[in-house]
Amino acid sequence: MTTHIRILPFLSITVLAASTALAGVARHDRTLEYHRQLATQSQFQAAGGLTIQGVGFGSGTLIAPGWVLTAAHATELAPANRLHFTINGRSYTGAQTYEHPLWQGTSRITEGYDIALIRLEDAVEDVTPAQIYRGSEIVGRQAMLVGAGLIGYGDSGQIPGTTGTLHAGLNTIDATANQLGAILPGIPLSSNNLVIDFDSPDSSFLNRTGSSNPLDHEFFPGQGDSGGAYWIQDTDGQWKLASIQSWGTLNAVGDNFGQYGHMAISAKLYEQSVLSWIDSTVPAPSTLALLFPFTFAAARRSRILST
């Protein structure tokens, strides 16, 4: 089906106050309360919100006591000391940021590797960090997005002013983005990116990829879920981080994001170049207590705290 599709980064650009409202873009025939409660489960305790002072709002996940994994298109917007990660009711300020070496900037977001690390000024001591998935390809599997973006329903899209409350839900990883050439002709697309779409329970007309049958509680990200992680249940039964929310598409210019037929694209974490970069940037657990108060050697494309 021929449509006019627009590419959209997932950062909520307008600064919005944290809300006690429910969060997440759900099927219109399901409740958002289900997705809010899902995010409170202990296995997702490492997820949090990311405020970019003076710019906007995103999401992130703690992967070590002083380290947060998020999207590079969020960290490139401001120096590290204007990034504030909120988790377990407390806010932590960034000290240094690192973008993946293959990240080409927001203007080339479809080329992949929209992944960044934030070293925090202080360690988060009361939350168990998340583990990163290191298994095989996950296309065809269900993944759990956990983020703090805008709320909404599939028949109308997201609701402005509602970022700040964690939400979680499943969707099926349908494809890698380089398989979308017929839908997005002329746009450079990366095999590092994974694709989900938002299937309607009432019609298959706008189905983009994969099955047109939605999950019973099919879930879709909103703006502000940039940097939020898709978790996959590994063979050991543990939920682990598999990709980072990056960008999305609209059915047509002027759409309110989060409607049925829209697609969301995330950056793989289990690709070897990404795993190697994370492992070489984040100190091993045995050295964190010794090294944390000091400035680490900057990886390629890192940015030192500026004032």
Q: Any overview of this molecule?
A:
The protein is mainly β and 307 residues long. It has two domains: 6-12 and 132-270, Beta Barrel (Thrombin, subunit H), CATH 2.40.10.10; 46-129 and 273-300, Thrombin, subunit H, CATH 2.40.10. Helices cover 9% and strands 31% of the residues. The chain has four helices and 19 strands. Strands 1, 9, 12, 13, 14, 16, 17 and 18 form an eight-stranded antiparallel sheet that branches. A six-stranded antiparallel β-barrel has the order 3-4-5-8-7-6. Strand 4 and strand 5 (67-70) form a beta hairpin. The longest helix is centred in the last third of the chain and has 10 residues, at 272-281. The termini are far apart. Residues 12-23 and 287-307 have low confidence and may be disordered.
What class, by secondary structure content? mainly beta
CATH topology of the largest domain: Thrombin, subunit H
- The domain count comes to 2
How big a fraction of the residues is strand? 25-35%
Averaged pLDDT, please? 87
In short:
The chain contains 4 helices and 19 strands.
What labels describe this entry?
disordered C terminus, Thrombin, subunit H, 9% helix, mainly beta, 6-stranded antiparallel barrel, 307 residues, globular
Secondary-structure map with pairings?
Layout (H helix, E strand, L loop, with lengths): L5 E4 L15 E2 L5 H8 L7 E6 L3 E9 L2 E4 L1 H4 L7 E5 L2 E10 L16 E5 L21 E6 L4 E2 L3 E2 L8 E6 L2 E2 L16 E5 L21 E2 L8 E5 L5 E12 L12 E6 L3 H10 L3 H7 L10 E3 L3
Parallel strand pairs: 2-10
Antiparallel strand pairs: 1-17, 2-15, 3-4, 3-6, 4-5, 5-8, 6-7, 7-8, 7-19, 9-12, 9-16, 10-11, 13-14, 14-18, 16-17, 17-18
